[in-house]
Amino acid sequence: MFTRARHIAVCRLLRLAGRRFTATVSGPTPLEPIIEDTIKTIGPISLSKFMRTCLTHPEHGYYIHKDPLDKNSGDFITAPEMSVAYGMTCGLAFVRMFLAQLQYQSRHNPDFKVKDKIFRVIEFGPGKGSMMRGLAMVFKQYIIDNPVEIVMVEKSDILIREQHKLLCKSQKLEQVDDYNFESITEWGQPITWQKNDLVELDLDSKYMNFVVAHEFFDALPIDRYIKTKHGWREYLVDVREPEAGRPGKFGLVVAPHATPGSFIPATNERYNKLAVGANVEISADAHMYASQFAKIINSGDVGGALIIDYGPKDTIPINSLRGIKDHKFVDPFSEPGKIDLSVDVDFLGLSRLFESQGLKTMIETQSQFLNSSGLPSILGGLAFSMKEQQQRFETLYQRLTGSAPQDMGRAYKALQVYRNANKTT
Ligand SMILES: C[S@@+](CC[C@H](N)C(=O)[O-])C[C@H]1O[C@@H](n2cnc3c(N)ncnc32)[C@H](O)[C@@H]1O
């Protein structure tokens, strides 16, 4: 089973061996002439524009025209797809966050009345809906005194239909307009879907908002910069001559002069203090989404977020862009729109942004997070009820929490964000 974490480990090994990517047999994809024409007309384009076109172009974008998680034709597998136990463990983490904040409210806010509140859970990039399935099951059991509402933020019509099938069974999917859908989950919770970049939510304080994003931030576009002795310069995507072992039509070049983007690292101390020769990746989209998360959480007295992805815990990501296809890694500039693109997430940058908005944060490895949030008990319960599958659950536990290169316990990080001064531990 190929997870994107395994990809990183293998990628590092191959980098050491001096061969970075497997060559793919690439014919022209529908996006290739579109990108080439743009570059020929306006010159080399930013990396984020290239990535956004490849991933979410309204017709030919990777996430728009295929189900990347399909069992037969998919390109990778994620933890929520391995077992419902993963989503359930994340659900328990939210319940614990919620209960700790109720305790805080009861001590510090005499006006807070929990019985008047709606528990709203908002998932960004929900894939096939498996994380939300685990969460909804747990919320049905533990959030019994409050109505639960679900919002899914998803760009892909194909995945919206998959999520609806998994979560709502025979309930009809109603299309409200081009960007919005609604239904009812099999547990009776109202559920809506939004395709917009800027999420539209009623931010009334009657809501307690809990936001979840699993392998969402790694799919957001980045820009890449290098510090030269003349200042910061941006890497741009240009058309390149074909080369043996490099089948893609595009590649990176360093802009000869400062570009508008290069003012971002130049005016930010976190980057600007780095030495000449430093490379950094910066995602304005990640910043935009995290700012939305903060605004949503801060609109209620109680709320939080859980972001799980891979990336370093406390350093700036560098040179992490990779292409993924057929459970293998490929040149990220090959077959635009036909391969997944993925980057390391800047956990420290996200955490600082949340803290600047008055929120508390905690970054752990996935192993620490799952172990302290109840995965062993959930798997133990499942293994007890399905005795013949005991070995399967042991293997799953190892895969999710282990620290070997093929395991996910160390490469993946969990960032928890809280309203108020509550820690979950
Ligand atoms: C790598 S998949 C992860 C899916 C799921 N969370 C999981 O872990 O199995 C990325 C998800 O984010 C969605 N996505 C990517 N870019 C998006 C964007 N800009 N806005 C909304 N959804 C997006 C994709 O369609 C997909 O559902």
TrEMBL record:
Does the keyword Cell inner membrane feature in the UniProt annotation? no
SUPFAM superfamilies tied to this protein: S-adenosyl-L-methionine-dependent methyltransferases
Is Signal included in the keywords of this UniProt record? no
Which key words tag this protein in UniProt? Methyltransferase, Mitochondrion, Transferase
Q: Which reaction does it catalyse?
A: L-arginyl-[protein] + 2 S-adenosyl-L-methionine = N(omega),N(omega)'-dimethyl-L-arginyl-[protein] + 2 S-adenosyl-L-homocysteine + 2 H(+)
Entry's Gene Ontology BP terms: methylation; mitochondrial respiratory chain complex I assembly
Enzyme Commission no: 2.1.1.320
User: Where is this protein localized, as stated in its record?
Assistant: Mitochondrion
GO cellular component terms, A-Z: mitochondrion
Task: Classify the main location.
Answer: mitochondrion
What is the role of this chain? Arginine methyltransferase involved in the assembly or stability of mitochondrial NADH:ubiquinone oxidoreductase complex (complex I).
- Family the UniProt entry places it in: Belongs to the NDUFAF7 family.
Q: Which PANTHER family match?
A: PROTEIN ARGININE METHYLTRANSFERASE NDUFAF7, MITOCHONDRIAL
Could you tell me what this protein is called?
Answer: Protein arginine methyltransferase NDUFAF7
Organism, as annotated: Ogataea parapolymorpha (strain ATCC 26012 / BCRC 20466 / JCM 22074 / NRRL Y-7560 / DL-1)
